[in-house]
């Protein structure tokens, strides 16, 4: 760990100015990812700009959905009655993540920017294309038990976002509000926010230098109200998903009117499956349909030496999640 | 009376006859209040400096140079030490002379920072000392090490690995064969082969390894260290530093777990002493969590194959055990799994072998139930398979093969209550309601299974000294250089001293964890409770004998002029055996004769070196009954219910019962906690614990508590623990067998057996993660 400076910003402008003045500075919210990276000598920012007092807060009902300030904590949002009622999958994704201590600290914005748990990325002694472009990816022929099987490249096969919340937000068409250093805001649908590794695994999202995620908008929908988040992992708590599924169904008279499917733990980024949704939409809400949807979702999976099990596991996870919602 | 920075005890329940009772931990309050000073917390030392170890990125290679230009510029840096400038040690375990002198006090014979060679990833290559931890960390990060890397060997499974049969070292201590196991197996009507694989496991105690070295003079050092074995660490340090024993003091007042990782001394401890001397200030070193995966040993990755031959009725005819495991470039260590295979059941033919492969890893070491934990997995899964094969209940097959005598030595057991463990466990678990068919109990998406397994652990020979000073005001100071892992040594010894002296536990002050105190056994191999309690009990008897002599010589005493043999001490009273009304409290005597305090000392023996009271009678029968002619083991039975999700592959333990017979139980609460802890350790090993080395670079890929999974609360159901009361006169003066190890032995097998009952597939590659369960279930479809 290196020496670093710390400054507290009381306004967004002040934060932007601090960022302008110090190349390499980073924003600090809950710090649950950042401090880990600094302790492991994976990040050495000269300045931490504390944005915890910035006013990007609140969980409000808007005319067509919810607006969540990104400085809210995971635990606050996960337990919020509006979130529980309108977006059960989002609430569950938050409360099944990490540990109580981490959920109390970690911000929503920080959650969306968490880094991979890949053991090669997390240990500076290994080569890693994400950390040092061009240095190589030992996971390709190494310990890839928990790596991704969808959307990977020969440069990087990790689940770049290993968490849960973004999977649920992706399923329910959330939109992120980003604010740049000049105070100008733009809206980016979350399905356009994350970048697949391709030849540039070090580029993980479309956030520009100094830009902040200030709010998340989630549109209300029947399929969001009838939703669930299922997470399968190697221990019951405080573990990342081997596979997870955020699903929502609007079923009327046994027929699926609309469906949302996103997978975690298997994609190089949180993985929405239009193919599965297409199978589901208009079909009867039964196990055969769900199995067809699961096959469609994993159709293009590319497993490596140790993680072929994830195909079957992700399919079964998806079927179970769909059954859970359909039978609720 | 408190010469060192010791805890003050609180929360004592006051009553007599406290042995066995659930006395609240006497050090609990100090720990909860933050008053307990752990080894890394002696921050009062003047000018305490901080050391940070820089470790090797690569697993094999040669250091070609260091660039310390940036590191040196960090303010407060006091020294950057490498093999090029670290003052040499007087002795190291790498030489044959050093190895002889240090013996078992160090598990790893390799001493880092003595050459440019790199043998394992995580090997210390430099140590940076600075005025603050932050400066030391920063400088260590900036220090550049140039290395020529070579291709490492990763494990016994590596295509580069060369298997060999060890002829010396721990891995050569295979139990003696009996009969002709190969022939008996070939001719057996029922033959069964079970191959088990075990991932590397790491101890991961909450408290990392930590050392503070304080040179009080040029030739005198006090080392505050996280050790489970004061005497071993003391010895290793004075030999390596070339000092007289009296000039080295080792202090360990509290430990935050160890599980074997702190049983022998590792290089970082002596490195801290070396650099403290070099910079002329006390130095603190705390290993980081990632460093804990490459600094204090591990349970080696291994494969064991057990071939079992039996009659059609299920009676054992042959046991053949083979183990293959990874060891370091220098040492022949393998935990001896075949010990328990050798003794758990009556079987006329037995043979075992061990093969090792050298790889670029550090030396592996003792980890809770070393040998017995994985060994019991093989034999207890195999017995389960045999039960199904011959159509017997898992308990019935075990009763059929029950060893009434030690099958290896033919000696009678000093005590054995395994049958009672089965019986009580079955009753508590409701085993009688078990469906004998496997794969037959479905609840929704889950299959439910019930499994059980036996456990056993030997009574290892040990001895230890204790000192008891009884004061005329009715309190006592009790001393022994024991350690308390957090499991309750402070408390149980307080209880034993209280009863032995006839005083309340709050009047006992037990001091441990200091090499200046009487030497005693390590907290390892389940030795501490039996050894320390016995020596304290005997030291109290020494006090009484001295007081009886004084009493019979005092004309004001009610026992004046009695023969010593006619006087006894009961609950703090010295009285005539024949007439208990003729007596007085020791306080009355001591105050009357003006004796402020009186000291007793004793050596307590544990195991075969203990001579039972019968043996000292010196009659032929007594000799026959003596300890040396008994086999001594604790026994246990574990019962487990699992739910296996057949689509998701997840396994949840939903019920658990452990019944343990381990001699006298000194504290029912701390004993229960020990057993729960051991069971959780075994459940973790069965279902989730495993460290992964990259198959090319031989470096761990999950060296963190987030990625190396140990059980969380949500993985563990309500646990039922029961003890079978045993009186064992042959093991030690207190009849105590120890609980640390027997509480884990058999537990992983109970989980695997429950999974087998649930899904009808035998899973023997640990940990049993969802991918393996799904793979097994695919065979059914």
TrEMBL record, chain A:
GO terms for molecular function: FAD binding; xanthine dehydrogenase activity. The lineage of its organism: Bacteria, Pseudomonadati, Bacteroidota, Cytophagia, Cytophagales. Residues 1-223 form the FAD-binding PCMH-type domain. Gene3D superfamilies: 3.30.465.10, CO dehydrogenase flavoprotein, C-terminal domain, Uridine Diphospho-n-acetylenolpyruvylglucosamine Reductase, domain 2. This is Xanthine dehydrogenase YagS FAD-binding subunit. Its EC number is 1.17.1.4. Pfam families: CO_deh_flav_C, FAD_binding_5. PROSITE patterns: FAD_PCMH (PS51387). SUPFAM superfamilies: CO dehydrogenase flavoprotein C-terminal domain-like, FAD-binding/transporter-associated domain-like. The keyword Transmembrane helix does not apply.
TrEMBL record, chain B:
Keywords: Oxidoreductase. Residues 33-151 form the Aldehyde oxidase/xanthine dehydrogenase a/b hammerhead domain. Its EC number is 1.17.1.4. Transmembrane segments: none annotated. It is an enzyme of class 1 (oxidoreductase). PANTHER family: DEHYDROGENASE (PTHR11908:SF153), XANTHINE DEHYDROGENASE (PTHR11908). This is Xanthine dehydrogenase YagR molybdenum-binding subunit. It comes from Fibrisoma limi BUZ 3.
